[in-house]
Amino acid sequence: MNQRWQKSSYCSEGSSCIHVSASPTGKVKLTESADPTGAILAARPTAFAALIRKAKEADHA
User: Fold this and answer.
1) In this predicted model, what pLDDT tens digit does every residue of 4-61 receive, in sequence order?
2) Cα 58-6-44 angle, rounded to 5 deg
3) What is the pLDDT of residue 38?
4) What whole-number distance in Å separates Cα of residue 11 and Cα of residue 18?
5) Is residue 5 within 8 Å of residue 31, measured between CB atoms?
């Protein structure tokens, strides 16, 4: 089964991008555009949501 990856909305054309996908096991996976078949992070949805919250907090600090 092929995973469907969604490109980050912060990615501009021609630059290195982050892609996100939901795996068949229910985990959220992140990868980079250079190797979309190799996940660099896999996490449960609650852990991924916590990561995003912390990233947003750091952006506003």
Assistant:
1) 878 877 777 666 788 888 888 889 988 887 776 666 788 999 999 998 899 888 877 6
2) 60
3) 67
4) 7
5) yes
Residue 28 contacts residue 45 (beta carbons within 8 Å): yes
Q: How many CB atoms lie within 10 A of CB 47?
A: 13
Cα 37 from Cα 52, distance rounded (Å): 22
5 within 8 A of 21, measured Cβ to Cβ = yes
CA 28 to the chain's CA centroid? 7
pLDDT at 14: 60
In the prediction, which pLDDT does 61 show? 63
Q: Buried (b) or exposed (e) across 19-38, using 16+ Cβ within 10 A?
A: bbbeeeeebbbbbeeeeeee
**15/18 Cα distance (integer angstroms):** 10
